[in-house]
Amino acid sequence: MSAKAKWLNKVKWDEHGLVPVIAQEVGSNHVLMFAWMNRDALSRTVESGEAVYWSRSRKKLWHKGEESGHIQKVHEIRLDCDEDVVLLKVEQVGDIACHTGRHSCFFQQFSGDHQKGEWTAVDPVLKDPENIYKK
Amino acid sequence: MSAKAKWLNKVKWDEHGLVPVIAQEVGSNHVLMFAWMNRDALSRTVESGEAVYWSRSRKKLWHKGEESGHIQKVHEIRLDCDEDVVLLKVEQVGDIACHTGRHSCFFQQFSGDHQKGEWTAVDPVLKDPENIYKK
Q1: Which of B27, B84, B26 is nearest to B51 (CA)?
Q2: Model confidence pTM above 0.90
Q3: What is the ipTM score, two decimals?
Q4: Using an 8 Å Cβ cutoff, are B130 and B67 in contact?
């Protein structure tokens, strides 16, 4: 994979060669997750039609759903005004984007005030992670 | 502003003391913009009920809409599973989140394939930026 295509130059890659990516569900417009891509990941995403991210912790390409089956079929790709953030509109296979077995990674809700607040998990676990990642 | 409240410790601030923030419109669920916050910005956001970001270019707090009037009234704040990304659900005053005068910053759409692609501005300018930022 060369990932040298001209259209990739429009993206302002950060000092690590990465760009933040927001994955949003087509239809509901739910924000499912946030991740990062490098040039190769974005190129492969376009080529395959499925979301491929760069895992900063594992330092390798991460084809979302490669273990869980919860792949993301890409319907649309957008770039922001500063050209340094990507928005993916995806169909979330299995309806589960989060490794905790929830629909969205953004399941912790703030309540309280600026002096005394708390974060509470408010969305249901749809599938036990034990059963998502089969040994 | 101390920004020492315990609930702020739940957030995993990056090496610059920042967290990525996605602003999403209440109701439509449109993703409006992406920005960053430090502890002080998030604390002030909760205290004021209006989005306050950290401007990485200007290196100072940025009360969104302070010049344009296009403030964001915060309805809900969410944190993701890794506790390192914040999602704001906001009411966008003036319907314009982008400094280009568009509803959303994500107005550039990709078309093509991985070898030959292009980005095209597909959303309308609702108000001329010249008239948003009055001298």
Answers
A1: B26
A2: yes
A3: 0.96
A4: no
pLDDT digits (tens, 9 = 90+) for B117-131: 999 999 999 999 999
For residue B58, give the CATH number of its domain: 3.10.20.810
Q: Classify residue A19: in a domain, yes or no.
A: yes
Report the distance separating Cα B84 and Cα A34, nearest Å.
10
Distance from CA of B115 to the nearest CA of A (A): 6
Residues recorded for chain B: 135
Q: Is residue B133 part of a domain?
A: no
Token pair of B122 as six digits: 């597909």
* Tens-place pLDDT, residues A22-58: 999 999 999 999 999 999 999 999 999 999 999 999 9
Residue B33, in any domain of the structure: yes
User: Taking CB atoms and an 8 Å cutoff, what residues of chain A touch B108?
Assistant: 78-81, 83
Q: Do B117 and A33 touch (CB under 8 A)?
A: no
Least CA distance to B104: which residue of chain A? A80
Segment A89-118, tens digit of pLDDT:
999 999 999 999 999 999 999 999 999 999
Measured between beta carbons, the chain B residues lying within 8 angstroms of A22 are: 22, 31, 34
Nearest residue on chain A to B109, alpha-carbon basis: A78
Q: Does a structural domain hold residue B132?
A: no
**Contact yes or no for B79 and A119 at CB 8 A:** yes
What is the Cα–Cα distance from B31 to B119, expressed in whole angstroms?
18
Owning domain of residue B94? 6-125
* Count of domains observed in chain B: 1
